[in-house]
Amino acid sequence: MTRATSVEDYKLYGSFEAVRKTLLDPKFADRRERPLAYWALPSDRRLPLAFLGRTVGDLLESPFEELCATPGIGQKKIQSLVKLLHRATKDKPPGARSAGDGDATNGSKAKGRERESISPPEGGFDPGLVSEALWVQWRETIRRLRLEHDTLGRLAPSLESLPTVIWRTPLKFYADKSLGEIRELRTHGEKRVRVVLEVFYVINAMLAEASAKDHLAIRLMPRFAADIECWLDEVHHHRETPPELGEVQERLARPILRQIEIDAGGAVFDLSAGRLKMADGPQSVRVQSRRMGVTRARIYQLLDECSKVMAVRWPDGRGKLRSLEEKVRSAGEAAEMCRAVRELCFPDKYEHRDEEAKGEG
Questions:
Q1: CB contact at 8 A, 149 and 133
Q2: Which one of 71, 121, 193, 353 has the largest count of C-beta atoms within 10 Å of its C-beta?
């Protein structure tokens, strides 16, 4: 397509000239320095690959006829070019595309249509809707609120989908990289990139509008741990008598078991509930191994997942549960439940290992 020869060609030319005029405004000077790929989404189709590495300013300086004559560029690629240029005019990064986002001929009518949310209508997280522009926003949220040293494992929605080798990786490792650089990392395939992006997405969704204050700090932690710590504070500072067994089960054991199920799966949950005598069925490792058809060594291996999860999710839990044991040591069954929970989540045999991990963090 070397020149406008049809109604559609004239519409495209008009759309290009309109968005060109907008982007040449001095207020868009910083955007003209960005490559066109900055506004592309992984889910986009028919991207004009020949143009993605060129800056917006360079493209705007090129005559429309010259762009159309580029090898491999047809009418649909020019439509995609205009669509990406329209995205560059928006104050919000591209997220989910609206129904009319793909119609490049709508010109200024398309402005502002894209939704800020990247969640599809049916819910869930879609990494295909994350652009470099949106990723820059998420990175800025992490830096602005000084969350760079929090770890992926502590903040991930679930550890089941997060590879163990990056549980303790600080957010800074990824916040210092572009989206393209992350995708080029060794061992970072589509699945791993997805879970990393989801952590940043969740944090930004919660804190994008938060502003940093010199005298205050934001501390993120899993909800189950925050709820337990509030209860522990009440027990230590506002109670004269220790809690009874039922309260320990509801306020301590059950929240931990729910988190274990989220992070380690149903099999580990069932074994853990049995160890805490909070589920029907076998309690001893010998009977559990027979019921599952595995060795006792495998049962212990599965139970070890609990300590690995808690070491990442709630690293302060060991000391806090020891303090609780002291508080309830004369409370009979309640004291025994507190001891069993601590031994499940923070076995004494791993105490030295956890202290080393905390020092490395």
A1: no
A2: 193
- Give, in order, the Cα–Cα distances in Å from 67 to each of 7, 10, 79, 92, 287: 18, 14, 12, 27, 73
* Average pLDDT taken over every residue of the chain: 85
Q: Is the pLDDT of residue 245 over 70?
A: yes
Q: pLDDT, tens digit, for every residue of 279-323? A: 765 577 888 888 888 988 999 999 999 999 999 999 999 999 999
For residue 312, the one-letter residue type is V
Distances (CA, A) of 336 to 16, 150, 324, 330: 73, 33, 11, 10
Domain of residue 99 covers 7-110
User: Is 213 part of a structural domain of the chain?
Assistant: no
- Tokens standing for residue 123: 């819910």
Whether residue 41 is predicted with pLDDT greater than 90 in this model: the reply is no
CA pair distance 97, 177, nearest whole angstrom: 25
Torsion of Cα atoms, 286 then 287 then 292 then 294, to 10°: 20
Instruction: Quote the pTM value.
Output: 0.74
Q: What is the pLDDT, as a whole number, of residue 9?
A: 78
**Interatomic CA distance for residues 49 and 46, integer angstroms:** 8
Helices 317-328 and 223-237, axial angle in degrees (round to 10)? 30
Do both 227 and 343 map to the same domain?
A: yes
The answer to the question of residue 194 being in a domain is yes
Q: Which two tokens stand for residue 346?
A: 């923070």
